[in-house]
Amino acid sequence: MLHGGYSSSRSSSRRRGEDDLYRGAQELHHRTTTTTRHNKTTQATSRITNGTGPSRGTTTTPSKARTNLFKRTKRWTVLVRACVMAGLLGYFLIMIRQSWLLTSNNDVSSGGKQMAPFHGGGMRATRHAIELKRVEDAQTALEEEQRRSTLRMQHTRPPPSTEKVSFYTIVPMEERPFSQQQQQQQEQDDNRPDTLDNLCGVHAKNASKEHSNNYLQKDALGPKSRVMITGILNPIGFHLALALQEKCGVQVMTGIDYMFPNTVSHRLALQKRIQLLTSNIPKLVQPIVLPLVGLDPRRNRNLKNEPSLIPATRELSLLNFRPTHIVHLASYSPDEYMDPQKFWNYASPYVTETRNAELYKIRSSLLSMEQILASIASASNDDETAGTPRPHLVYASSVKGHHHAVHASLKTADELLADTYNSLEQVYSVGVRLPNAVYGPWGRPGSTMYQLSDAAVANWNSAATDSRKLLESADLGDVSDRVGDFLYVSDAVDAIIAAMQFRTTSQSPILFEVQPESRMPLSSTASAALGFMQPQSESAIETVEIKESPLVQQTESFLKWKASTSFHEGMMKMLAWHLDNEPHTAQHDDSDALSNICAGDVFLKQQGAEPCAADDILCLSGRKVLPCVSECATSANCVSSVFDEVVELTKEVTEQCDYILYTQSLGYNVKDLKLQAKYDDAEEQIVCNFAFLPRESALVDSVIKKVPDQQLEKFGISPSITTKRSVLREQKRNGLNGRLLYKGWILIWVKGATKPLPTSDKSLLKLNPGNFFSSDVKKALFVDENFPVSPNLEDVLFLMGEVHRDKLPGRSVYHKDQDGKKRKYKLQPEPERKAVMLLAPLKQRVSHDSKETALADGQKLTVYTATKYMRYEIGEDANLKEDPARKKQREFYERVPTFVNRVDMRSPEEPWYRYEMKHWIRTRWIVHDMKLEEGRELRCDWFEEHVQWGNDLDQLSFAHVMARRELERRIEHQEPDDHIKPPHVQHPELKLLTDAHEWHPYLGKEHRLDSLGQALVKVPEHMANKDEKDDGEVEMETIDDHGNGSTAPLFVRIMSERVMMFARQQWAAKHGSKKKKKRRKKKH
């Protein structure tokens, strides 16, 4: 015990001594020089690191390393203490300032009474002040809610009166004209536009000069606007969407449309409008097709996780899109519910004994209007600060006295709903009463003006047609006395755009009535159409006087709108559109008469009107204008291209050529051609080879330099010593174009083609070569410049012969089944076939190292997977990010089956036809038939579809064109629907026995194939040897092009490599025997 206590005392004394020693050493250390300190510190550190400290058993003073360690520790301690003190001081300063602010606020709210100054216990005082503030805020919110409730009661209940009130009458809006005096009593809105440039449309700009308080900044249409259109696929909604993008710069739009009548042909017609909207509006959300045009009125704060469609109701969530403007155009016209094909769904409650869907009209109209209003009401005005303001609502109504009584009553109910929601929920809305006959391009089939224009085009060349017969052909003979209020669609769109930016200062709903341009019976309308069809005829046109109503005067005052398109001009434009979209109804003629190529533009020129400009999207209704040298373009409405100067040259040099083999190397500086051709005129069929390349390319310069001066005179070039090199080079380029042969190709150079070309020029020669070659040319074979093999003369002749095949008789063939047993099959006779186009199927590869895969039986190639194969085909990496323009096209094609194949509310009597993309091809080489008009029509469909999207995947456009044409053909020919599988699907082994599945029928009626009956019969094994007529296996046969092609049904042939290999062997054997016979004749 004593020893332990002594040791502790000695240890404490020693520690105190060491502390004194440390302090002395520290003072001594600070007196030394900087160099000595550095050297000593280095030596001490070195000894510690190397382990060369004092030896064992020796007594030493504390090391200098520990002194340095202590010094560093001391510095860190001082620094930490300073930081802590500074933090505490800042904290107390902040608390003092917060308490002072709360004290100041309470002084103001308490009417100037001073509170006790801030002193000790700051945290407790601050908490007390915060609690007081919360209580006061809650009391203020309660008082504000009571004030709002009182205001709502004043709006929705009659004022107190001593008199007895039996009922409350809602005054119609047209009887409450807009009060200018009430506007002046309101304060001016600070958000109104500073300049007129913020508004869209000339009508809104002119109206804002007089009524500036009614055109606010938040309602102006511009790039930041988000517009939702119900009924976006009807004529007004379609033109409104294009006008908002073109005139107002609105980029973000979405649309909803109904699905009635839900026939396949109706859905297929609507997809063209969706395509034009998708390709012209960059940020268009794909239109959503629903059974009822309704919006979900429920409130959901979690917008990121909220789906676009509510699964339970299949309704669109309004808050997910956050629109600034809503235009409700669904069910604006009673013609929308008419089904021209008369497929009535008798099991539906919306179809009555008279086959009128009146119940559906009532539910669709009232439900959609009510849900839109409820959705807007759910986004309260308090949410404007949170970024979810109430959208501006414009809805279409109908004028009084409409010949459809139910429709007029429904529109009156819409106006009553709008008034009610404004009284209850302060929902602002603008109603636009439209006439009963809004007409123009892209009208709805079944409407009055559409039927009349269609009948006029169908009877265009009939001289015996009068107005009565014209109405009867349009199924309008019973309603010839019906009076129509006619307004051109562009005028209606202008009125709606102006109404979308108008807002009353009192936030009360308002109605505008759009006055028609003319009013006349349908008999006079038919006479006006007849006047265009037969200019020499004189038909009396009877018009009815139009009386202005107070709402019409209100429209002219606050919107500054009046119809600007006369009925004569509008009727002329509508007929021109029908002529362009009904090419089969006009007769082809090179004179001034209408042709099936340029009917619409020629008609406008005959009437003294200018056709649509190439960049006028609204006039063209979203369609792209094609190059002038295209065989699909019109002479009056086209754009220039790099080929304009060489068209006449190519026609001249291709004279007396039966077949054309051609390629192109454009869009860059060409130094050499990758492919090599062989020119041989010894064959019976003359094959000419042409290569198109840039005029300014290095290859052209090198080729023209090699031409001797003595040979230049043959081409009209006379060089002299004084001629400059640049001038001589231009003379050679002009005189030698189409005259030189290089690697077997006749070179044709194109001016200005060294830079990347637009899609219309890049794909023109490939897809639409009809105007480049002479009328002597029968067929043309395009070969891509990157094709791995140079085609020889035999390849060209073989492919040219595969576009035709003679009829095949019934025959027996043998084939081994899956068990390895040899089976006998009997094939039915096959008719003569002729192809307007010959192509190769798509290879299913995504990289150079991967192997080609094959689909299993019953498996289908998706659009997404096929696009990856196409990207590899054109030399891209299929695993990289997809081009946005190409992605938009692919996604559109993927959505087409979702609204074409839907069976919701579809009649069970309608055949079950489905849209399916399955014609997947390669376009490294294409064989065109240059003589058939059907071939030109297919090339034009393909080229127009490809140019509309503007990318380099022409294979994708071809698959869509073929799928659409096949569906139209099946509907028109009333072929068996998809409940009946085709023969090659019922018997997969049929693909190995015949190539009938590779011939895809053409659209025309005259090429309809009758039913072939049972295409395949499997002979039982015990009867396989009893067929006396069977003499063994029959090979597939290919016939040269010598049949009567005029009577043969037309097809598009996609020839597989397996069939091509067998056919080439047969062709080589047959062609070789012909050559031997020729040689023998020459010897003799």
Structure description:
This protein starts with a helix and ends with a helix. The protein is α/β, with parallel strands linked by helices and 1084 residues long. It is globular and about 110 Å long. Mean pLDDT is 76; it is low at 1-62, 105-122, 155-190, 299-307, 583-598, 1005-1014 and 1026-1046. Strands 14, 15, 16, 17, 18, 19, 22, 23, 24 and 26 form a ten-stranded mixed sheet that branches. A seven-stranded parallel sheet has the order 3-2-1-7-8-9-12, with helices on both faces. The protein is built from 33 helices and 26 strands.
Sequence-ordered SSE layout with sheet pairings:
Layout: H1 2-31, H2 34-50, H3 64-109, H4 122-156, H5 180-185, H6 202-210, E1 226-230, H7 235-246, E2 252-258, H8 264-280, E3 283-290, E4 295-296, E5 309-310, E6 315-317, H9 318-321, E7 325-328, H10 358-378, E8 392-398, H11 405-425, E9 429-434, E10 437-439, H12 448-458, H13 467-473, E11 483-488, H14 489-499, E12 510-513, E13 518-521, H15 522-533, H16 550-558, H17 567-581, H18 599-606, H19 617-620, H20 647-653, E14 659-664, E15 687-694, H21 698-705, H22 709-712, H23 725-735, E16 741-742, E17 745-750, H24 759-762, H25 764-767, E18 779-783, H26 793-801, E19 804-805, E20 811-816, E21 822-827, E22 833-841, H27 863-873, H28 884-900, E23 921-929, H29 933-949, H30 954-973, H31 983-986, H32 990-993, E24 999-1001, E25 1016-1019, E26 1050-1054, H33 1057-1083
Parallel strand pairs: 1-2, 1-7, 2-3, 4-6, 7-8, 8-9, 9-12, 10-11, 14-15, 14-18, 15-17, 22-26
Antiparallel strand pairs: 5-6, 11-13, 16-17, 18-23, 19-22, 20-21, 21-25, 22-23, 24-26
Helix pairs in contact: 3-4, 7-14, 8-28, 10-11, 12-15, 12-17, 13-15, 17-18, 29-30
